[in-house]
Design a protein that fits this description.
By secondary structure, the chain is an alpha+beta fold. Helix 1 crosses helix 2. The protein has 4 helices and 5 strands, in the order E-H-H-E-E-E-H-E-H.
Length: 162
């Protein structure tokens, strides 16, 4: 990763730019499967509102990657407790990661993933879990490169397919 990129905890002034990256995740998912992944009007505002709540939550980690005063990466994770629906005990969940297109290929995504994992470990995560859209080959490759292995596959079926 370039030395001119800083990965740090997000702050209130970062939320607008981070929310744009979060909205990019929503749009990418919705474009692949609009029945599975919702889309809202003004998704950036919704993302900013949600991230503002997460900044104050002790179990949440919101990171940004900054280069030359611009937010070029955003990552979000949290400590999640036992979840009977997916049969997992307490864990660090890596929920979101997005690097601006102009900054891809520089190692920022990998560096943000490792930093997010380190911070979740500090909060007590004994293991990590992440979900990635099966069509997102870059995300799957990154996850594998930092030690993740597939354990579950989500499948959907729309009612009109019956």
């Amino acid at each position: 990763m370039n030395d001119d990129v800083t990965i740090r905890a997000a702050a209130e002034p970062d939320l607008e730019q981070a929310a744009r990256l979060g909205a990019e995740i929503v749009r990418r998912h919705h474009a692949v499967n609009p029945n599975r992944f919702f889309m809202l009007d003004n998704v950036e505002a919704g993302y900013a509102w949600w991230l503002r709540q997460e900044l104050d939550r002790p179990a949440a980690v919101v990171l940004v990657a900054e280069r030359a005063g611009e937010i070029v990466g955003y990552a979000y994770g949290a400590i999640e407790e036992r979840d009977w629906s997916i049969l997992i005990d307490k864990h660090g969940a890596l929920h979101d990661l997005c690097v601006a297109e102009s900054a891809r290929g520089m190692g920022i995504g990998r560096a943000m993933t490792l930093e997010l994992m380190a911070r979740l470990r500090t909060l007590g995560a004994p293991r990590y879990i992440l979900r990635a859209m099966v069509q997102n080959e870059a995300a799957l490759k990154l996850a594998k490169s930092v030690g993740f292995e597939p354990t579950m596959i989500e499948m959907t079926r729309e009612l009109e397919a019956v």
